[in-house]
Amino acid sequence: MTELSPDFSLEEVAEALKMSPRWVRDRVREGAEHRRYGQKIRFSAEQVERLREAHTRAPAAASLTTGRKKRSA
Length: 73
Description:
By secondary structure, the chain is an alpha+beta fold. It has a domain at 8-56.
């Protein structure tokens, strides 16, 4: 008989990645691989590793502005 790999809960994954459960839930909403058992969201070890790799890659630098732009005279 083959041994089944354990699944990890959303909270366990968040703790392992040192991120909030909300962050993990947002990644799921954006299409991160996961499994659903009813309303429960679970992750395999491979899925957690892919999530970790995606998190550690530096995103492309984006120009962000805050506040209102000043009018030029």
